[in-house]
Amino acid sequence: MPHTASRYLAEGPRVGIRHFTQDDGPEFTARVRESTGLHRPWLFPPATAEAYTAYAQRLIDGQDRAGFLVCEKGGQGTAGSAGATAGPGEGIITGPDEGVITGADEGLIGGPDEGVITGADEGLIGGPDEGVITGADEGPGDGPRAGAIAGYININNIVRGAFQSGALGYGAFAHAAGRGLMREALGLVIEHAFGPMGLHRLEINVQPGNTASIALARSCGFRLEGYSPDMLHVDGAWRDHQRWALTAGTRTSG
């Protein structure tokens, strides 16, 4: 169902971000199924009603994670008007949340539960076709309407105290990939995390081959901090990851 701007936690020119609800299940899972070719082998977000219910409830109830849906503010962006091009690596997905739910948060992670998932939200996105879905192939069926879900961004493994840190996981849906929407949305989530949420540090863990996710992290100011062999269990195997990070201080000064 359409969502008005008043329901957004933050908004930019083309997208707004808001929390997950259980009512979003049918649209979210339909978009996941349409985007399988874009997401694999990096992401495995919930594609069934049952999986979505568990996934969303963890984000709704959890004190150690927060989930944000990326919604288009208008009907622009249908197959013929995708227009825009979005900076490096946009329709990709990367982030730690993937797996949390069945492996979808690979990118997501951090902390002891990182690998618990088998790679669904790995955080990244897209593999070789990451941004390839644009233009005419962009959208299935009717094209996006106002409030349509374009993707999601989750902050996982939130640790308070002296750390004040979280790990990002995100994914774009096929109809929104390559249009710059995720870059705009990630900027909104970063501002929300460093503002109202009071976090100091955000981390993105990305497989080296997920070039689109790496490009998105870099374009939003994240810096490469290191390399972690066999960091997360994704798609049936332990995968190496690069660690990208951003702090509130570097965001302000950058």
Strand portion: 25-35%
Reading off the top of the CATH hierarchy, the class is best stated as: Alpha Beta
- Number of distinct helices: 6
Tell me the series of helices and strands, N- to C-terminal.
Answer: EEHHHEEEEEHEHEEH
Q: What would you call the shape?
A: globular
Helix amount, in percent?
A: 10-25%
Structural class: alpha+beta
Radius of gyration: 16 Å
Taking the sheet with the most strands, its summary is:
8 strands, mixed
Mean pLDDT: 76
In spatial order, strands of the major sheet run 1-2-3-6-7-8-10-9
Quaternary structure of the protein: single chain
Output the CATH homologous superfamily.
Answer: Gcn5-related N-acetyltransferase (GNAT)
CATH architecture: 3-Layer(aba) Sandwich
Distance between the termini: 38 Å
Write the layout of secondary structure elements.
Blueprint: E1 10-11, E2 15-19, H1 25-34, H2 36-39, H3 49-61, E3 66-72, E4 98-99, E5 103-104, E6 149-159, E7 165-172, H4 181-194, E8 201-206, H5 211-219, E9 223-234, E10 237-247, H6 248-253
Parallel strand pairs: 7-8
Antiparallel strand pairs: 1-2, 2-3, 3-6, 4-5, 6-7, 8-10, 9-10
Helix pairs in contact: 1-3
Summary of the model, kept short:
The protein has helices spanning 25-34, 36-39, 49-61, 181-194, 211-219, 248-253; strands at residues 10-11, 15-19, 66-72, 98-99, 103-104, 149-159, 165-172, 201-206, 223-234, 237-247.
